[in-house]
Amino acid sequence: MAEKILVIDDDVDTLKLVGMMLQRQGYQVIFATNGQQGLTKAIEEEPDLILLDIMMPDVDGYEVARQLRQNPATMNTPILMFTAKTQLDDKVAGFEVGADDYLTKPTHPSELHAHVKALLSRAPKTLARAPAASQEQAGYMIGILAARGGLGVTTLAVNLGVILYNKTKEEVIVAELRPGQGTLDLDLGIPESKELVEMLSSNASDITNHKVREALVKHSSGVRLLLASHLPSDMHLVGQVGQYEILFNRLAALGRFVILDLGTGLPLFVQKLLPLCNEKIIVIESAPNSITHTKALINDIARLGIDKRGVVAVLNNRIRSELQLTMTQVQERLGFSVAATFSPAPELHFQATRAETPAVLSQPDSQTTQQFNKLADLIIERKAQAK
Known about the structure:
Elements (H helix, E strand, L loop, with lengths): L3 E5 L3 H13 L3 E5 L2 H11 L3 E4 L8 H10 L8 E5 L4 H9 L4 E4 L4 H14 L17 E7 L6 H16 L3 E5 L7 H4 L7 H7 L7 H7 L1 E2 L5 E3 L14 H14 L2 E8 L3 H6 L5 E6 L3 H16 L7 E6 L10 H8 L3 E5 L3 H9 L4 H4 L4 H20 L1
Parallel strand pairs: 1-2, 1-3, 3-4, 4-5, 6-10, 6-11, 7-9, 7-10, 11-12, 12-13
Antiparallel strand pairs: 8-9
């Protein structure tokens, strides 16, 4: 297979010229026209080498290199800075932020090829990716997230998981994936778990099916849980993108439905995992500012190459208020259809937390449970249609 080179440069003429030069040498070439796009493609495309310009308007090449070196998924990817900046101080700055080589524009094609070939020959072999789950084993992956905190992502994940298990009697896994922000152990009265922290801290090759299976906690509801630490000091582990990708594949092989609590926003690991999910559920509330944030999140998700038609918006009204917008008003402001709505039930959720049980088990005949049943039916129907 041809080695893959990512070229990050805001100059379209340079992209065309360099791309043609490298393609003639047999390389697969992908392009990014600004620094932020380059960071995203470096994660998505897993290039063998990155050709990086310095002078770009949004995020310059120095900052791109710095972030690439801080991310475990790209920390060993060779970086060749290819720029018109010729001063010694510029070169020193490039090497200080992690560049492996430095080449000034313009250059002869043979010189560029020589630098590229040398870097690729010296690059350490990357860890083999975990094989994707087989068609027979692959779970239906459901990613749930929100644009801001406090909208009930974890509550939605665990209650949906319980209903899906009750309806299908198939293996259901609910996985909190934000170390340092876990709440399920406290809400359900489960002893603190460090398994997710340990896996994200380990080498990706150590994250085996057996290890992930042993990390899952069997809840009395029948659902198995992967619990995130609630210690804020563990939050730095969200940068372990390579480990998250392996973990995703392992979970897919262990459950028929796998619900991923992705938390808030689009950190790099979410940018990597969300396109792999069969369902992308976004939780919103009817406050105007929340709708504005959610609209921006949906647009950002679309820029990851995800079709908006595959996104499910869920309106979670947590507090009773006459100031809340109606679902019609929410849809108009959001410019997006809402697939499910949850009525305010603060007393129910409070009582469920006190009883250390999911709300749908606390009051099986409640309106909230009926609403979760409808959402689960929608997921089951969409799963059947996807076959």
